[in-house]
Amino acid sequence: MARHLTLVPAAELSEVDVAAALDGNRPLAVLPAGPPAAVDAARAVLRPDEPLEDGADLVVVTSGSTGTGRGVLLPAAALRASGEATLRRLGGPGGWLLALPVSAIAGLQVLCRSLLAGTSPTVLGPGEHLADAVARMPRGRRYTALVPTQLRRQLDAAPDGLRAFDAVLVGGAATDPALLQRARGEGVAVVTTYGMTETAGGCVYDGRPLDDVQVRVRDGVELAGPVLALGYRLDPAGTAAAFGPDGWFRTRDAGALDAEGRLTVAGRLDEVIITGGVNVAPPAVEGALRTHPAVLDAVVFGRPDPEWGQRVVAAVVPVPGAVPDLAVLRPWVTERLGGPAAPRELHLVAAVPTLHTGKPDRRAVAAALLQEAH
């Protein structure tokens, strides 16, 4: 008998829904909160009218940070393998603070880990201070998961609340080394995570793969193990391209393994800017810009250039009262990353838009600035 997806709006998702998916009893997909267009786009990917692929228990729509979002087919076994390996790595079960959207894998995994630990998550309310949410958490070990922007904001507003956690998982986007150093200097137990929806969330912690996860670098970072998804919803060609017959998932991320097997990820292969024959990773430039005292946030992307092939373009959010200048920021980046990485074009913006996962939406910034130019 054919199985079909149950679509649940993010605001209505319950632990019962997630538990049913984890038990393999009712396939689930969570519709993102947001404008009707975002919900309609997710429905178009999920196609609840079509029978569900065999073995899938949860379908998560990716953020589409490098193109159109896709529905990732996750079996309950992968979710359990990921959640159980995480709890072992962190030191055992504990209470979780949910501070991420449940339509994305990072937020959903907070719910899954809580269920596996026999606890209920504490939900960070809109506008609620982190310390107040921590005060509502049960005693014992405490965990949470954040994206880098949240970590930065919480360090500015409430570092005491962050220090209350036994581990603060940070992932979803590249994390600036300066931000990590600052957090650890404040006594925050930060754990960097690398992974994606196709790996049921983070599967490499502080550069080390979780139990039974394998990492290799060929044409980009490749991952294998029990946490892998089955493929993409109603997309056999995309599935075959990303999930090889040898059991390895091709991430399309640039990375390297050191002599001790520790993984370092530089960013998306298709986001690398080639300027004057030199490869420039946008996350590295963004990190350098954010360390400037006049810059609150930044997003970097490439544009065609008749002389350089591509030029590095930066859109920055100024610190209140500051007016960052290209003549100042170029040498700042050059000193840290070299001349090719220095932006050749600068725009000041009020905020950096994010995808529903919390990642910076580089495509939206580039499109908006192009529209302004026209």
UniProtKB/TrEMBL annotation:
The AMP-dependent synthetase/ligase domain, residue ranges: 52-209
Keyword Cytoplasm annotated: no
An example molecular function term from Gene Ontology annotations: acid-thiol ligase activity
Tagged with keyword Ligase: yes
Signal peptide interval: none
Residue runs in coiled coils: none
Alphabetical list of Pfam families matching this protein: AMP-binding, AMP-binding_C
Limits of the AMP-binding enzyme C-terminal domain: 285-359
Keywords of the record: Ligase
PANTHER family hit by this protein: LONG-CHAIN-FATTY-ACID--COA LIGASE, NONRIBOSOMAL PEPTIDE SYNTHASE PES1 (EUROFUNG)-RELATED
NCBIfam families to which the protein is assigned, alphabetical: PRK07824.1
Record-given protein name: O-succinylbenzoic acid--CoA ligase
